[in-house]
Amino acid sequence: MPVPIQTLNWESPKNIPYNYTVLRYMHDITTNEFVNVGVALYAPDDKFARILYCRTLDRPRRMFPGMNAEHLTTILEHLRTKFEEVGPQFDSLAASITFILPADDSSLQWAPIGAGATSDPKGTLQKIFERMVMRYHQ
Q1: What DSSP line would sit under 42-111, residue for residue?
Q2: 87-138 pLDDT per residue, tens
Q3: Can you tell me the distance from the alpha carbon of 71 to that of 80, in angstroms, rounded to the nearest whole number?
Q4: Ramachandran category for residue 44: left, alpha or beta (phi over 0 → left; psi -120 to 50 → alpha)
Q5: Backbone angles phi, psi at 46, to 5 degrees
Q6: What does the pLDDT read at residue 53?
Q7: What is the pLDDT of residues 39-68, one digit of tens each?
């Protein structure tokens, strides 16, 4: 009996360029001690702009006793919704993150921007988040 011929898709997966940055919480900026609390990823070709952040904040609480985790969670949620709303309107990740959280002496600071290409921006964001934020959370 003849074996049916399968149609093969020889096209390579879509390589979507993206930029990402890690969001750092600095309880006391004079010491420069920080803990990673979130990741922002922007893939302009797909208009993909998302932030994932640590919802429990267990590690920052252990590192910085007395921090106001409830207040920080409120701010992180605001940044997430604002970035997803306005991020795709900007030409670059740098412009969008500066718009929602300008560089200043506040407790939340953006790390240097990284770049890559992916066929799955959402999955890549999750992987970066797991590696950069959740790796040492228990």
Answers
A1: EEGGGTEEEEEE-SS-HHHHHHSTT--HHHHHHHHHHHHHHHHHHGGGSSSHHHHHHHHS-SSSSSEEEP
A2: 999 999 999 999 999 988 889 999 999 999 999 999 999 999 999 999 987 6
A3: 14
A4: alpha
A5: -105, 0
A6: 97
A7: 999 999 999 999 999 998 999 999 999 899
Nearest one of 20, 16, 5, 23 to 106, comparing CA atoms: 23
Give the C-alpha separation, 105 to 28, whole Å: 10
Return the CA Rg of the chain: 18
Joined together, the tokens standing for residue 8 give 């093969």
Task: Note the pTM of the prediction, 2 decimals.
Answer: 0.87
CA 98 – CA 95 distance, rounded (Å): 5
pLDDT of 13 reads 66
Q: How much of the chain, in percent, has pLDDT values that exceed 70?
A: 90
Cβ burial, residue 6 (10 Å; 0-12/13-18/19+): exposed
